[in-house]
Amino acid sequence: MLKSVWKSEKLNQTVQLTISGCLGPCDLANVALIISPDGNEWIGGMAGDAVYESLVEWARECHREGRLLLLPTEYNDRQFERFGSEAKEKV
Questions:
Q1: What is the Cα–Cα distance from 49 to 29, expressed in whole angstroms?
Q2: pLDDT tens for residues 31-59?
Q3: Which end of the chain is less crowded, N or C, counting CB atoms within 10 A of the terminal residue's CB?
């Protein structure tokens, strides 16, 4: 679903999507990494239609604006520090 939406709506022009088996913290399932000039945002527990639909809507809004926008606040509790000893919030 994600790849087809990104391709058909040309969202890669604003937000690059790469799907991988593991980004590094393999003990945490379904991890996304948002890389921007402001730094890296690691998000874990990316599962379920609602989470993916929210990600697509965020990417669409970024595309309309022509720039990366802040992630929706619903992702705040999913963010974690890649090399930190604990997550910002438990996933």
A1: 16
A2: 888 888 788 888 888 888 998 899 999 99
A3: N
